[in-house]
């Protein structure tokens, strides 16, 4: 049994991992202890409830060691105990709906005692590996991740929690029971919504359920890149491997020469939260099976009172059939396969016997790609208005041109016009 010695002026008590308080001399139970309170003054304290009904509040110093085990210490400087004492408890870490860190004590592999220590304070990220808890009443401690991907983005399916997105911090507590070691994964998942910031990205949470007034904002600095899967976050200005990908969608509006960026499930659900961005850069094209296409450049965005620039790198492909060109980007979201039309605008022309599509995806950017048309001559004449002219020298020239214009509603194509 693991106990925390509590050395008072006239007696010594042992606070056990089960919540019992034992008299050190007799070993008999004299009460219970707890470590949670709605009273701010009593937060991050141990509260002794003796059998007579009285209670004593002891200031506690809590921290996590390198194995993410909870270390609790008492010091005479806080005015209650006469000697310093310290104990490391086995257990596991979780975060409750109020964003408080809860440590559930354990007395064996996969065996919880039912006793918890609640650590009250404010959370922050110090790089992707360290989740910092700035404790109410002073001091701080760190939960450390040893995972190769310490952060991940997921979807919140709990309708009682604010926001459709989850930020998951992956960490493990390594407990020891004699010669036996046990690894307990932490349960650290925060519900909220993602926001793009010039310095990186931010995750906003609200314990009250009102995301317009978040009480917790976790800022993650680094470099963001807009990719087909959404938003890809890189460490060290992109020099390290991608940390994680946040689901999103990028839809091009040829009428305004802007992209609509939706980041995360919350923003996918609410079109008003999407960000408008102008793109500059290049379109590359590889003539090969599948008609590959790569769109690169930078997105200059403005939305939610923020302005900034994102790298843009979307791998896509196009098909040409029945008088229609469709540009599709492929992305994997949570194991599912999602494909959406990029809605690129432009004109088709016949040049030097080749069918060419002039892509216009910003006010000052255009590129031409060769279309591999696989239809028959009959289909071609059926779907396109071909104009044949003859000059004075008798040369015959065939020209074709039209503009593709597509209208979208929430990213879904609803009309198409060709003229």
Using the CA coordinates, give the radius of gyration. Answer: 31 Å
Report the structural category: mainly beta
Strand proportion: over 45%
Helix content: under 10%
Strand tally is 38
Shape: elongated
N-to-C CA distance: 81 Å
Summary, kept brief:
The protein has 419 residues and is mainly β.
Task: Describe the secondary structure blueprint for this structure.
Blueprint: E1 3-7, E2 12-16, E3 20-23, E4 29-34, E5 45-50, E6 55-59, E7 61-64, E8 70-74, E9 85-89, E10 91-95, E11 101-108, E12 111-119, E13 121-125, E14 130-135, E15 140-144, E16 151-155, E17 165-169, E18 172-177, E19 180-185, E20 189-197, E21 200-205, E22 216-221, E23 223-227, E24 230-234, E25 242-253, E26 258-263, H1 264-269, E27 275-286, E28 292-303, E29 306-321, E30 324-333, E31 336-341, E32 345-351, E33 354-362, E34 365-370, H2 377-383, E35 387-390, E36 396-399, E37 402-409, E38 412-418
Parallel strand pairs: 23-29
Antiparallel strand pairs: 1-2, 2-3, 3-4, 4-5, 5-6, 7-8, 8-9, 10-11, 11-12, 13-14, 14-15, 16-17, 17-20, 18-19, 20-21, 21-22, 23-24, 24-25, 25-26, 26-27, 27-28, 28-29, 29-30, 30-31, 32-33, 32-37, 33-34, 35-36, 37-38
Name a few traits of the molecule.
419 residues; disordered C terminus; seven-stranded mixed beta barrel; elongated; six-stranded antiparallel β-sheet; 61% strand; mainly beta
Describe the protein's architecture and organization.
The protein is mainly β and 419 residues long. Helix content is 3%, strand content 61%. It contains 2 helices and 38 strands. The protein has helices at residues 264-269, 377-383; strands spanning 3-7, 12-16, 20-23, 29-34, 45-50, 55-59, 61-64, 70-74, 85-89, 91-95, 101-108, 111-119, 121-125, 130-135, 140-144, 151-155, 165-169, 172-177, 180-185, 189-197, 200-205, 216-221, 223-227, 230-234, 242-253, 258-263, 275-286, 292-303, 306-321, 324-333, 336-341, 345-351, 354-362, 365-370, 387-390, 396-399, 402-409, 412-418. A 7-stranded mixed beta barrel has the order 23-24-25-26-27-28-29. The protein has a 6-stranded antiparallel β-sheet with strand order 1-2-3-4-5-6, with no helix packed on it. It starts with a strand and ends with a strand. Residues 400-419 have low confidence and may be disordered.
